[in-house]
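Researcher: Re-running this chain for the archive, since the previous output was lost when a drive failed. Same request as before.
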Amino acid sequence: MAHTTFPLDLIQAQRDWNRTYAALERRPLHTAALRRRLQQLSARLASHPFWETRAGRSPGARVDLRRQVRELEEAEGRLTEQQERILQCIRDWVADRGETPSMREICRSVGLSSTGSVAYQLDKMEELGVIDRGPSRGTGRGIALRW
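Model: Regenerated structure tokens:
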């Protein structure tokens, strides 16, 4: 199946649904709040505007979303502590400013001394599939979160 690009809020809703479902499996007692949360997330997933697009109407789109989220979660489980700090820095930066940080901005935010260290970590994160990097990879501005 071709790689579908899903909106970040849809990916996050699926991740939240997965976590809530896992919590429900771990705690069979006192589940009313978890069940309510799962219903809310299910409704949010089902009513997302993405499903009205051409890519969203594809027969395998929902399965592809679940698969991609599962792969991202597995990849993030293999990140080092430093890579997790860089990923969180990028997420926070995008949420605050609407663009990805430069290499120097990542250096300052996570306390690294060289942009080479950041470049190395970003390369490893790209290999794991946590981020995608575009043509301006030397500046850091070409980073695209897979979430």
